[in-house]
């Protein structure tokens, strides 16, 4: 008794066409498809996040500890030495 019969579907299609019009139905179906794709992608990413969290907890229980962050290695300065800026007027006065 809970199953949809073919005439139920036909009545639903007629009501949809009367409510939305034949021109707006393809746009509505397209936006519904986009929404379902977004929902599917988000639920998949949430499941992946949960899997990563569980893997991290398993590593912690097994005694795995990540290495502490290392400070960056300092490179010796290899730039050029800048000459002091001399005012041209001062240079003329000194000579």
TrEMBL record:
Membrane protein topology class: Single-pass membrane protein
Biological process per Gene Ontology, one example term: protein transport by the Tat complex
Keywords: Cell membrane, Membrane, Protein transport, Translocation, Transmembrane, Transmembrane helix, Transport
Bilayer-spanning residue ranges: 6-22
Main location: membrane
Annotated region (Disordered), positions in chain: 47-95
Localization per Swiss-Prot or TrEMBL: Cell membrane
GO molecular function, a single term: protein transmembrane transporter activity
PANTHER family named in the record: SEC-INDEPENDENT PROTEIN TRANSLOCASE PROTEIN TATA
HAMAP family: TatA_E (MF_00236)
Primary role: Part of the twin-arginine translocation (Tat) system that transports large folded proteins containing a characteristic twin-arginine motif in their signal peptide across membranes. TatA could form the protein-conducting channel of the Tat system.
Subunit structure: The Tat system comprises two distinct complexes: a TatABC complex, containing multiple copies of TatA, TatB and TatC subunits, and a separate TatA complex, containing only TatA subunits. Substrates initially bind to the TatABC complex, which probably triggers association of the separate TatA complex to form the active translocon.
Protein name listed in UniProt: Sec-independent protein translocase protein TatA
Gene responsible for this protein: tatA
